[in-house]
Amino acid sequence: EAQVTQNPRYLITVTGKKLTVTCSQNMNHEYMSWYRQDPGLGLRQIYYSMNVEVTDKGDVPEGYKVSRKEKRNFPLILESPSPNQTSLYFCASSPPAGGLHEQYFGPGTRLTVT
Amino acid sequence: AQRVTQPEKLLSVFKGAPVELKCNYSYSGSPELFWYVQYSRQRLQLLLRHISRESIKGFTADLNKGETSFHLKKPFAQEEDSAMYYCALSAEVGSYIPTFGRGTSLIVHP
């Protein structure tokens, strides 16, 4: 089954404790991205990747890092999480020229930073 | 800069009533526009895109370049249409940062 998976689905952590949220897709998509979803603010893009070893900032990259060492994986790293990063995070992927194609979303990761 | 505005945070209707979820955009070129839907506890999924000119689950959306709008419409709402709806815009080829609106929560009462 073609899908985008994320782990963990739920995470509660404390300020400053490094964490990684994994994202994997099995559709051989070149484009992958991370979003955060907050009430009243909709979806905001954090980082995106056009292909292996090619990443770039989205609208709200501060406090996040990403890497794209393999085509199928695009982990989101929070080196020193803070409470304002409490949010619902979605990973997405799409074929080449990601902007013009349908994006396939993961199930979401709900992160709480205390 | 491209921008998507969904003026209504919440839209509440009764079953069988017509529904229109508004989406306005600002972009100087020729955009690609999408509607995504997120049902309760599910992931976002594409509902429709303007270039396809199709009707999905009874929903349609027409791109009006003069009014820079891409409103989503359905003549008779169903309870299962209750969900969060996001309008999204992508610029012409080469743009990799799609812009999403803030979303409209549609509630259809029985």
Name a few traits of the molecule.
heterodimer; A: 114 residues; mainly beta; four-stranded antiparallel sheet; 0% helix; globular; B: 110 residues; six-stranded mixed sheet; 11 strands
Summarize the structure.
The complex is a heterodimer of chains A (114) and B (110). Chain A has 114 residues and is mainly β.
Helix residue percentage of chain A? under 10%
Structural class of chain B: mainly beta
Q: What summary fits the major beta sheet of chain A?
A: 7 strands, mixed
Helix content range of chain B: under 10%
In whole angstroms, the N-to-C terminal distance of chain B is 41 Å
Rg of chain A, Cα atoms, Å: 13 Å
Shape by Cα distribution of chain B: globular
- Cα end-to-end separation of chain A: 36 Å
- Overall pLDDT of chain A: 92
Most residues in contact, chain pair and counts: A-B, 27 and 24 residues
**How would you describe the oligomerization state of the chains in this entry?**
heterodimer
Which residues of chain A form runs of ≥5 with pLDDT under 50?
A: none
Which percent band covers the strand fraction of chain B? 35-45%
Give me the count of strands of chain B.
11
Number of distinct helices of chain A: 0
Q: Rough shape of chain A?
A: globular
Q: Give helix and strand order of chain B, one letter per element, not per position.
A: EEEEEEEEEEE
Structural class of chain A: mainly beta
